[in-house]
Amino acid sequence: MFSSARGWRWTLSRWRRTRAGWEHRNLFGGFRHFQADLKAGVVLYPTRLPDFQAPTAVLPEERLRVSLRQPGFIEARTNGVVSGQVSTYPVLLSAQVDPKAPVIGYFETKGSAGLDRTLWKLFGSPSYNVQYNHPFAYAGALDHDLGGVAISFLDFLTHLDLRDDKIHPHSGAFVQNDLQFAGLGGDAMDLRVQPEVRGYIPLGERATLAMRASVGFLFPMSYGDSAAAARGDSPESVSRADWVRDIELIYLRGFFSGGPGSNRGYPLRGVGPHGAVPFFNPGLQASALASGCSDTQSPEYDEIRCGVPLGGLSLWEASLELRFPIAGAFSGTLFCDASDVSPEVADIRLDHPHLSCGVGLRYDTPIGPVRLDTGYRIPGLQVPTGTDPRQDGDPGTLYGVPVAFAFGIGEAF
What we know:
Blueprint: E1 3-5, E2 9-11, E3 15-24, E4 33-45, E5 48-49, E6 57-70, E7 78-90, E8 103-119, E9 122-139, E10 149-161, E11 172-186, E12 190-203, E13 207-220, H1 225-230, H2 240-253, E14 274-275, H3 286-294, H4 303-306, E15 308-309, E16 314-327, E17 330-342, E18 356-363, E19 370-377, H5 389-392, E20 403-409
Antiparallel strand pairs: 1-2, 2-5, 3-4, 4-6, 6-7, 7-8, 8-9, 9-10, 10-11, 11-12, 12-13, 13-16, 14-15, 16-17, 17-18, 18-19, 19-20
């Protein structure tokens, strides 16, 4: 998958060269649906375009997922679903490369058991989920404070689908909510909720005005205090081990914005809180790392080390898009995206719009449109004047122009 980086660089990351799967729609009779899917590939690190940089490491990754769906579970229209997943992947939070930082990866195992049922156009799926993330180092030394994390949570996903077409919606609406509660064992206790609404208005026979809005709130109950204190005036009082654990949990449970399915004027994870991440700097004490990143005039200050995406506790996103035919399988779009991620609880900052507008090209295929979007960050409509650029991040430019490119399969929403 290609993804934009620093606003204009394209990382040659996640080149999946192998995919295999097996499916049985009547396993042992009773129309049980079993499915297994394996994706394997490599990440050429830190290769990116257009200023080609030869890879210095090849990082293998994989994802194996199996699922079994039992129809007529409990009653005729309810399905029972169990699934498991094993993944190995690098943690590449930023397109900027710190040659002194270790390259960290996760070995991740997940399991889920739940139900799903559709009533007319309303779908509901309650499930119980567990996951364990074990960190390791692809290159360099693993931070001694970075350890495995276990998360156990209940998830209740619902959506009402009133669209006329799932792949090419032309009219109708789609409303979804994802509610999670973590804390039935594991290292995290929190409440996480993310509702979303989409609308589609036909303009003639083929042109469509599409709209999307979403908010997200994470209410941590057993973590987050050390990460908040590290942003304050007394970082020397922060326990380094607690700071590492908070950042790790927020990375796994928090919100990010930016990229092909989000704010297309920014790279992946480009919108939201940025700062220092201690486990990319093994051996540095919390006070030394925080003080070295607090003063841009300090000889210890390093923009790459001090501006890593952190994730946040509050999210809002909004998009408006005009979709229109061009010729044959080609179509185009004009869009505007806005979003923000805040490090605070229940903090919707409408004065941080990160507004980007742009154009896109689509080519229709049997699996959905392949798309290329170019987003331009509107000057003066990003963040309030005086906002610390170290905390909001630097998405970079293309020859001085604040744009980003995004590739994707399927419509943005």
